[in-house]
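Record type: ASSEMBLY
Status: queued
Input:
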Amino acid sequence: MSDVTRPEINKVVLAFSGGLDTSVILKWLQQTYHCEVVTFTADLGQGEELEPARAKARLMGVKEENIFIDDLREEFVRDYVFPMMRANALYEGTYLLGTSIARPLIAKRQIEIARMVGADAVSHGATGKGNDQVRFELGYYGLNPDIKVIAPWREWDLTSREALIAFAEAHQIPIPRDKRGESPFSTDANLLHTSSEGKVLEDPWAEVPEYVFSRTNSPEEAPDTPQYITIDFERGDAVAIDGEGYSPASLLAKLNELGKTHGIGRLDLVENRFVGMKSRGMYETPGGTILHIAHRGVESITLDKGAMHLKDELAPRYTEMIYNGFWFTPERRMLQAAIDLSQENVTGTVRLKLYKGSATVVGRKSPVQHNLYSADIVTFEDDAGAYDQRDAEGFIKLNALRLRLLGRREGL
Amino acid sequence: MSDVTRPEINKVVLAFSGGLDTSVILKWLQQTYHCEVVTFTADLGQGEELEPARAKARLMGVKEENIFIDDLREEFVRDYVFPMMRANALYEGTYLLGTSIARPLIAKRQIEIARMVGADAVSHGATGKGNDQVRFELGYYGLNPDIKVIAPWREWDLTSREALIAFAEAHQIPIPRDKRGESPFSTDANLLHTSSEGKVLEDPWAEVPEYVFSRTNSPEEAPDTPQYITIDFERGDAVAIDGEGYSPASLLAKLNELGKTHGIGRLDLVENRFVGMKSRGMYETPGGTILHIAHRGVESITLDKGAMHLKDELAPRYTEMIYNGFWFTPERRMLQAAIDLSQENVTGTVRLKLYKGSATVVGRKSPVQHNLYSADIVTFEDDAGAYDQRDAEGFIKLNALRLRLLGRREGL
Amino acid sequence: MSDVTRPEINKVVLAFSGGLDTSVILKWLQQTYHCEVVTFTADLGQGEELEPARAKARLMGVKEENIFIDDLREEFVRDYVFPMMRANALYEGTYLLGTSIARPLIAKRQIEIARMVGADAVSHGATGKGNDQVRFELGYYGLNPDIKVIAPWREWDLTSREALIAFAEAHQIPIPRDKRGESPFSTDANLLHTSSEGKVLEDPWAEVPEYVFSRTNSPEEAPDTPQYITIDFERGDAVAIDGEGYSPASLLAKLNELGKTHGIGRLDLVENRFVGMKSRGMYETPGGTILHIAHRGVESITLDKGAMHLKDELAPRYTEMIYNGFWFTPERRMLQAAIDLSQENVTGTVRLKLYKGSATVVGRKSPVQHNLYSADIVTFEDDAGAYDQRDAEGFIKLNALRLRLLGRREGL
Amino acid sequence: MSDVTRPEINKVVLAFSGGLDTSVILKWLQQTYHCEVVTFTADLGQGEELEPARAKARLMGVKEENIFIDDLREEFVRDYVFPMMRANALYEGTYLLGTSIARPLIAKRQIEIARMVGADAVSHGATGKGNDQVRFELGYYGLNPDIKVIAPWREWDLTSREALIAFAEAHQIPIPRDKRGESPFSTDANLLHTSSEGKVLEDPWAEVPEYVFSRTNSPEEAPDTPQYITIDFERGDAVAIDGEGYSPASLLAKLNELGKTHGIGRLDLVENRFVGMKSRGMYETPGGTILHIAHRGVESITLDKGAMHLKDELAPRYTEMIYNGFWFTPERRMLQAAIDLSQENVTGTVRLKLYKGSATVVGRKSPVQHNLYSADIVTFEDDAGAYDQRDAEGFIKLNALRLRLLGRREGL
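Status: finished
Output:
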């Protein structure tokens, strides 16, 4: 692509992990665009030290005031993970969207930093085949319609790992020992999940090797005794575990620990990417899986049927919006408004059993002002007139009326 | 309700299990309507002997030609369970509809028998608070708009178990020893599942006691070693396990065994009934749970994204139709037509790991003429031009265009 | 139904028009339930004097403090008609819900009055075959779960007009001269519309006779010259006509005048009632029709595509909720929240041509901070780089990718 | 774009109208790709002579066997327009998709011809800003995943009309006199509609000038006397007008005449293009508008409520698929299967009044074996027991149960 006419760039904010790939990008941006590079490194709970990223940026000549390192964990869980959990979002019936939901926040923060430092461009390390490029860039453009976007993986000639390492060596970029050889798969991580894809995972018939998992024990190695926990919810959001209050991020971290111990939240999936291909991935979402199951549990006694069924119908669309990167859009906000309204009374406590890969709701209760379950009405015993069984006849007869009229026509 | 004006009934077809309740109903119908009673006992795989029902019917004076006992297991799985499984139907995100899906078939057979024997009425033993009365009666009316329906539980005065037993004793109806005392919960069973509800289950905070479960080992008692199986699918339906072909009913029976062994398919749920109340139930769906998970697995490599996402959007409506009893309706048939069309290429093999309560997809493959997964395209490695990464830029730019126009407006 | 056991009623709030039917109901309630009757007469813009209702109530012995006459026109349009218009709600593709939308407000006011006067029951004059009984009663129960509801048409023996008139004569209830004979059809009216159904309209093949119409000129008699008007919208609601500001009710009244003159808003329809039967009706919605068309017009330049298409998908469900009487439900409120959020920028002006039965949008504009239409981008002329046509190639290629993979499979 | 690396093309099938634009494209393809050009000219009822296209192709050196001229009118209406009409498809509430629905057929025929003549590429004259490029190319790729696509408007440098005319002059391409000057707008036409957009129409506040309309009289000039017609439908498709049978295309042609006379089917619209921008267009769909209205009319007495409401919910998605060019996709076929199933009994006759811009249903009837309307049941008169009004109480009570439980919670 040597013939590409590149736009003039003055200053670019790069989403910078400090790893090999984004280090190469940093250098490549400096060389190719002859522009000032601002690095942004976010703590989303991926479990890595961030200070090395600072050192690395310095080493590559990034000015002190151009190095941004932010702890976004609470914002991530409170404003992204929790709203999504309220919707019971499951992509293609199974995936809890751990990568998808992090991208809008990173994009938002990059655009904020660009505004602060007067940058005219942003850049990211996502490849040209994946969903993340779309999620980043739809976020960028939605928040700043005039921003310039540089996606090095779609532009440069470094299309193999060898080329990347050669570039790094040629430019004195430190290469972690374990990156020398071929990594057998590629990962992304944050407080909600770790994803793995590529290489050894590309054969969808082959079982995921145990060494790919990093966030969960295998169910076989999990304790032989179940553990019971309770989670308290207020207005749709989890606020306490076993009666102890937590902030959003620390609550998710605590559930991650519990989930890890019991081998909960592994998912081996072939999914449909927004860009039109199928890919096989492996996800570990220990705490998020528990949260998802518990949320359904508290909804089951506090949410009206009409609201629940409407939510269930809207969920696939909402989920697809997040997966595809349409977080900062009117349509996602519209559905969020509907979903959030439904959560006003989703307050109560769920009791779960964690055991060898499974989280199971075994009990749920709610304060009387939020509870909709009534044993008095549903009971097989005498209900003291709470429900008149004869009403059912009329209910059925009128629901059947159109079917009877249909039947008469068909009987002709 | 002694003042109820009852319609003239000539002959009634009763859904008759041979148990205490339907035996009392049989007698009550004879006494109250002074009509001929035809009994219909279906084998839906509930795991009970049917011949005792014949003896009981005879004992209560039902004529030989009025006793119908049918093995409906294959029809049940082939024409009801499998079509529903094609839709990945999950009521309120979790329930596999084991009771709901059996009712239409019973209703259909009752109406067929009524036609054969010249009966003008049908009757069932479902109570006035539940969903089953609706499912039965919508089926009846949809298939014969002029049929008369007798729902004894909504009509009679036998509103307590004591009254029922007193009636039985007064009429020499044999009472099984275990029915003398209060049964601690109520059950329904067929080849797909066993449901339990009522009494000890009415407190949704209390864990379901282990003695309630009848179809599955507890995960704790399941084998400590995982078992791997394969399931072959053709056009959306399972046809073989571990390479061995089965008929629909025998396949489900085999999966039930496997699920039982590994403690798979237990569900403790508070659900919204169609009649407007919440109830707590416990379901055991061992084979059906495995089937559901496996079906998603084979779809993941054979079903186009557009088809899959449309299916996911339609599924909540489809599911609600079945739960509410609208099986024999134009709208259910319409959705079935759409779903069935999508399954033309859902042919392939899924490999599952069964372990301590979980069934997990660990591999999936499909013959090349059905497969849509392509490692050549998705690979992180060089794809030899199968996908042009530069296309992604235009894709993103045009998806973002409206968002940029929105952003410009908001920036004003 | 002489054997019905009637509940004890202390005081009942009757929706009372002052016409023959509700006058008979008033007397019948007094006689049958031996209770105090409170009359509630609402001005919803039906175009009738309300004071005669007061006189009639007095005449029949209703205490002065038990007579309520309220002008609800502004509340009706502001809180019911306008929110519904934001959704572009059309039942079965054509009907603007003029009757449906008025019922919740009447129900709400009855429940408020019941609370004020300490009544334990409410009553209405809707028949047992229609939708209105459902809409009233779902409103009642939703706002006061313990209220008792009396629906005389479902209870009494006055099943023919002769019986009704005989009852009136026997109880000195004044009978309007034109009610002596059979009215050839039945009507309901409010500021939004007039509906007519029954009798001469029951043959759906016969054209509606001209004498049935009361709110609109026939298109043939409308002026031969078109009239052009503008309507200004703010945040989704109409606020001005031809630049002159109006309150919600007065704006709708003004549009009704314009629509009447030009013969706009007649609808002859066979519709599906919630209770399961089809009925033929004729509706006149002069101002509402103009409003509906104009609202689409202003949305077309101010509403984002994602928001609009989501609205269009949600509209049938929202519409059905209103038609069926589920206004005061969580699910309707959820959809309303989504819809209202979308209207934040629906601010602008629509120009319409009114002519012989049609209202047509001929122009629309919006202030720059709300407008999303950009001639600079869409132009066939040189757009100075606003849009890069080459982006379309990538957009198409990635949208096509899954279809190409499908095609390859099918080509095997 | 002189630096574009062009693929090797051997033979290309061009959608060729014979007009200036596609003539220039023909020449440009010959020059640029040095390949054999096959021209395909379709009669879709656009109302132009096709033989001049043959002469022009010859003149530009296209071999006799490479000139394809097909009359596709019947196929167009029968297999594209009619299936779409069954769905009552309206894009953004108003547009009948006249352009969208023609593109898949043209694409399909081009691919068929490519197969016949052994061409490896196809080409079209749609611009890079519009929807049609997407519709053509999704069609191409869906039907032949390996086809090469040439979109000259996205490739060449002829970005102004002057450049185009200069190119034509330089290559002896005849230029129609009226193309010399700037055409004041751009059009597309087929048997279903004529669309106009661009230039004088780009100001959405300015009324469309009368000279833009070509297919309809203005309502003001339409006859002062209404005309009544009947349309017969069988299984959802129109088959006769005023009792006289027509083939699909001739029926639509006849309705076009009637619509033209009465000024029916004009639409002035700002719409959202798939590519992300809003555009203003004017559509004339005289016969299609009548057909759409009539189809709703016949459905109103023959289609079950459940089927109709499901159709109404699916219609926006279905419509968007067609608008965006996803005709040849699994998801469109799935919805079509559902819709077509619903039409089995949509057989009957609709009577319409055509008058000054409006088509209004004034009567509808259906043979008894298809009809679902029953005056016996709906009547205000005594219905002889066809409907038991007391059923309504139970119907309402159970529909209200969850709302009452909600109300109790809120009353706490």
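Annotation: Residues 103 and 326 of chain D are 10 Å apart (CA to CA).
Annotation: Chain D touches chain C through 103 residues (CB under 8 Å).
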